[in-house]
Amino acid sequence: MELIREYVREAGQGGLAGWNRFWFTPADPATLGLIRVMAGAMLLYTHLVWTLGLADFFGAESWTSPHAASLALADSGTYAWSYFWLIQSPALLCAAHIAALVVFALLMLGLFSRVVSILAYLAAVSYVNRVPGALFGLDQINCMLAMYLMIGPSGAAYSLDRLRLPRAADGPRPPAAPSTSANLAVRLMQVHMCVIYFFAAMGKLRGDSWWSGDAMWLSVANLEYQSWDVTWLARWPLLSAIATQVTVYWELFFCVLVWPRLTRPLMLVLAVPVHLGIAVCMGMITFGLIMLVGCVSFVPPWLVRWCLERGGHKRAGEGLGARVAQVSTRRSRPSVAGGRRGS
Amino acid sequence: MFWYHNSMPASETLHEPERRPANFAWPRRVRLIVSAALVWHLVGLLVGPISSPPSILGDRLQAIYLPYLQAAYLNHGYKFFGPDPGPSHLVRYAIEMPDGDKIEGTFPDRKVHWPRLFYHRHFMLSEFLVGLAGPWEPEFDWDRQPLSPPQEAYVESYAHHLLKKYGGRRLTLYLVEHRLPSPQEVIDGMRLDDSRLYRSRKLGSFES
């Protein structure tokens, strides 16, 4: 009995300490800043494309009437808000669209990041809730990333906001301070990506073709999706089956194997062919890329800086300063997103 | 191969990090409040996936989480390409103009809808329509399956949009299903756009 009590006590203490360390350890906002640039660019492009069919999709006589949308959403309630339901005038629609594009551009550039990250999320959700019939996975990931970018200081790195900071009299700008909310935002992205991959695999395991190994063939044999003809796979059933199984098992175990530092690189490297394969062969370039942006949340900040600021050290010394600050932070606060332990 | 370490200096990462007292920037009370919000949110992330297909637990949690998930656009199943990649669907339309001319078209259409993302938006319109189908009724063949109320509303909405856009007098919509060929059929020379792979059903006729 004493043994059980001791186990429960240690498990509780360890769990609590781990929870605090995982969520509340301040982290360098470099990873968050990089995600802001990439997700902002994708949001801008995604919504720029809506311009081609703005009246068709969002106008008063659009593909989706309010009655149709309400019936489609009936199962899930009436909380799917969108300011586009209030807009009937074509001029106002155009103005709202341009305003949203400006917001997404500012998010990408990192100007007034705190405010525009909130506006970007509100705009992105408004767009998707107005056209429930024209959406796919891209929109889910776009909105997910926009939501978490609101939480952290996404403009603290790789942004115009940072360039606007005053320089010291004879030196570089101060390095971006480690931030608890930056860690929180990146952690939420990481956990959300794990949830997505796990249930994507679970959904596939309900289908016979993912077990039999035919699913990859069925994907590439779909003419409406096809952007690169790989029907030569018909003569290579084993290759098709291996690609099918690797995809399922990679998705299924991603939520476990992406955390240990020995297996994380493997999982992230595998994400590249999986998602680029979807992008190149099935014409879903935006979806493939945005999933990779989500995977960037697992790239530690020091590596982001190492990749992006190697040239910058010699020029301004700013990146080096940030590195020094980061190392000192790591020494005091182990962290997955910014620290030293396998995360 | 040092890049997978979370900290930069290789010499440091070779050793087990020493245990240090926790030093958090946020006070305990704030962490407690944020933790409660995190638990709420993290459970919410699971509600969408475990509700698709419907489940007892998912239904119970949906009753609690619905406003949050719906408002935050988080109510997703994430079942990408599952359970099986299936046939694709297109919508064909034929419009009679007031002067007697006829306009025919299909969505999605690669020749019209460009760039690819714009094409995909139109592709999703036709796929979404099929996804709204009610339970399969075995007494009817595929081309005579009754449309569910949401399907009827969407068909009407698509028809209304097309009639307004082109200024047409009368419009007829068809659903086209494009079956996927087997590897053997392709080896035997069948093309992906072979006419034998398509079947079509009428969705309805509408007046302006």
Can you give a write-up of this model?
The complex is a heterodimer of chains A (343) and B (208). Among the domains of chain A are: 26-137, no CATH class; 196-297, no CATH class. Chain A has 343 residues and is an all-alpha fold. Chain A is built from 16 helices and no strands. Chain A is globular, with a radius of gyration of 23 Å. Chain A is 67% helix and 0% strand. With 208 residues, chain B is of the alpha+beta class. Chain B folds into two domains: 24-80, no CATH class; 88-207, no CATH class. Chain B is 40% helix and 16% strand. Chain B contains six helices and four strands; from the N terminus they run H-H-H-E-E-H-H-E-H-E. Chain B has helices at residues 10-13, 28-50, 56-72, 116-131, 149-166, 183-187, and strands at 88-96, 102-107, 170-178, 198-207. Chain B has a four-stranded antiparallel sheet with strand order 2-1-3-4, covered by helices on one side. In chain B, strand 1 (88-96) and strand 2 (102-107) form a beta hairpin. Chain B starts with 9 loop residues before the first helix and ends with a strand. In chain B, 27% of the residues are buried. The model of chain B is unreliable at 1-18 (pLDDT under 50). Chains A and B meet through helix 1, helix 2, helix 4, helix 6 and helix 7 of A and helix 2, helix 3, helix 4, helix 5 and helix 6 of B.
Global geometry of chain A = globular
Mean pLDDT of chain B: 90
| Count of extended strands of chain B | 4
Order of strands side by side in the largest beta sheet of chain B?
2-1-3-4
Q: How many individual domains of chain B?
A: 2
Helix content of chain A: 55-70%
The rounded Rg of chain A comes to 23 Å
Largest interface: A-B, 111 and 85 residues
Could you spell the SSE succession of chain A in H and E letters? Answer: HHHHHHHHHHHHHHHH
Enumerate the spans of chain A where pLDDT stays under 50 for 5 or more consecutive residues. Answer: 314-343
Taken as a percent bin, the fraction of beta residues of chain A is under 5%
Major β-sheet annotation of chain A: none
Helix fraction bin of chain B: 25-40%
